[in-house]
Amino acid sequence: MFTLHEAFKEYVESMHGSFERLIGMVPVTIATVPKDAPSECIYLFSEGSLHLYVGRTRHLRQRLRQHSIPAAQHNQAVFAFRLAREKTGRMTAAYSIEGSRVALSSDSQFGPAFVEAKKRIREMQVRYVEERDPRRGPQDPLQRFQYALSFSGKCASRRSLSSHQ
What we know:
2 domains; three-stranded antiparallel beta sheet; globular
C-alpha cells in the first residue's frame, strides 16, 4: 500500500484553501492586474468557465506579460506556443532542426497561429493567488533552520533558538 509522508500530506491538504481562493477570485485581464498584486503566485488563464492553463511564478506581472506580448519567444510564451500547436495540429515535439520550436515559430502556418495565440491570451481572464514556493523556504537564516527542522519533526521555536545564539 502507498502512504504519503505526513509533512507532504499536510502540505497537499493545505492547498485546497488556495484553490478555493483562486477559483473564487473575480477575474481580471493582463492589462487590469492591479499594481499591488502579489509577485509570488499561482495563476490561472480562463475563457469563461473553461480553465485553460495554470502556472506558478515569482514575478506575476512580468510572467503574464511574457505569455502575451507579440515579441515573446517560444520559450517565454509557452502557453501560446501550445495553443498554436493545437490550432495547427502540430502536437508532436520534434527533436530535429526542421521541426524545432525555433523552426515552427517562423513557419508560414505556425508563426501566425503563435502570434494570434498571444493576442488571445491578452484577452483571457486571469486569476491569481499568492503562493510562495515551499521548496525555496524562508530567506532569513534562522527561519531556514527552523524550516529544515520542521521536516524532521524537531522544529524549535524562535525564542528557544534565539537564546542559543
